Amino acid sequence: MLDLEFIRQQKVGVRHLADGVAVPAPSEEALRVKRFLMLGGCQELVYPFWRDRTDGETGEIKRRSEFRVSICMRQPVSADGVQVWRNGDRVGLSGLMRCGSAWGCPVCCAKVMSVRQKQIGALFRGVLGEGGKAAMVTLTCGHERGDSLFELLSKFKTAHQALIRHRAFKQLVRDRAGAVVATEIMWGAEHGWHPHQHQAWFWLAGPGYSWDDLADQLYFLWEKVAGSLGLRTIREWRGKRIGVDVRAAWDASEYLAKFDREREWSLDAELTAGRIKTSSKGSLTPWALLEEGICRGNDSAPAGLFVEYLRATRGKAVISLKGAKALCERYGVDTNVDDFADANKSGESEVFATLSAKAYDTIVRNGGVGQFLEAARKLGQVGAAAAAELIGRGEVFHFTEGGCHGAS
Ligand SMILES: [Zn+2]
After folding, report:
1. Which sequence spans correspond to the domains of the chain?
2. Is the Cβ–Cβ distance between 115 and 125 less than 8 Å?
3. 198 CA from centroid of ligand 1 (Å)
4. CB atoms < 10 A from the CB of 39, how many?
5. Amino acid 44: pLDDT
6. Which end of the chain is more exposed for a tag (fewer CB within 10 A), N or C?
7. Which residues, given as ranges, of the chain have pLDDT below 70?
8. What is the pLDDT of residues 155-168, one digit of tens each?
């Protein structure tokens, strides 16, 4: 794993948190490279899971991986090899199969979320620019350690559907111009899986009530629909609203800041890695579970939990813009939300280097895709060529004053 060596050689800063707590803060380069390291680790973790599929026409039985993430960024789709592109300050690879799994693929998640961030940002700018209002609504319900994530997620979804069909709810949101729904999942040693939703609600005029009133009325309904499915809700805990929380949101970043999945997961991992080993009260993001799973091996509890998470989230939307269709049309936001398509888009970009299928395969096998991209980002075509050669020889790529050099 050359990328791991690469990250170890990066300078590490220190981030200060409140109460005098300082945590290591890896560089942006390290964070980007880490996604590829996590992808490789995730692929090893899901490698043992295969499914047989019978071809409808030939009757031939084909084995394929149960999880799409297993094929992501591993092979070129054509004989033309792999292209390295630049689009503004972004650099990426095209001509590769991508999985488009925003739940389970660290690389596709980053890509898909950056697209969603722009779409949601456009809605916030549009609504607030017209003098409208936006709120962040969080819906949560109770759970027990040992509950299956699959079941919890389906109950949560059913409860949410019952909520939005409820007559009193329709009355409550009659002036609302639209809503974006993001589903998130955390895991805690004490209570197990914890699915919840962060929703952005928009009004062009109104609403005629305070956020506290909205939270109270919404909680009353949420408790009812969730309760009928056997889900527990807690109104408040230590003065904090739990079951339903509503707060004003001034821009998309406040909304997106709540997204645990695209927070710098290394920070989470660093804050939680010590705790998971002792008795933990904190919650872990799926990325922290993945990282623990990679470090502790396929037979470890976190690895098993991550596989359960991959299975339970399959086919489900991470972010839904369905409830904001009219607003999307108003502000020219594409309503076709397709994680797979967005993960495979490179946009208007300029291709500045290409790799043969064989050269790329060697880079993948040596675990150096992340640092290859960093070299291409910083030094362009020259960097790409030098990195391909060094990584191909099994050496780590280094940035130096004069350019680059390798070291085994
Ligand atoms: Zn992927």
Report:
1. 2-98+344-407, 106-343
2. no
3. 24
4. 25
5. 92
6. C
7. 12-25, 252-282, 346-348, 401-408
8. 999 999 999 999 99
